[in-house]
Every structure is written in C-alpha cells, then in structure tokens.
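Quick one, tokens below:
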C-alpha cells in the first residue's frame, strides 16, 4: 500500500490512471483524487466524468 501511496504522490500519470472515467468505483476514485498533491485537466475530467456516469450526478456539478 505504501508503494501505491508514494506513486500517487509522485507520479501524476499513474494517479490519473487510477481515476478511470468509466468506472463504477467513483468513491474510491475520489479518494485517490483527494490524495493527489497535484491535479491537472485529465484528473478533473476523469473524476467529473466518473460521477456523471456512475455516481450521483449532482456531485459532478459540485466539483466545478
């Protein structure tokens, strides 16, 4: 687990791949997103698309 947390902190590309837009595990994706120290447009897009498609859509609007 420590290796994954270190990778999330240090590798933006790795972290973005843990936030799949077409995933039903949106709450887990949000935990990864929240732990990321740096976020880019791909990070935000993946999380918003995940909530819009598989979670409470209202939460997707709340991320803007």
């Amino acid at each position: 687990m420590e290796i994954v947390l270190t990778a999330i902190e240090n590798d933006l590309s790795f972290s973005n791949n843990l936030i799949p837009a077409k995933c039903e595990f949106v709450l887990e994706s949000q935990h990864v997103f929240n732990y990321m120290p740096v976020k880019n447009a791909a990070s935000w897009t993946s999380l918003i698309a995940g909530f819009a498609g598989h979670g409470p859509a209202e939460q997707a609007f709340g991320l803007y």
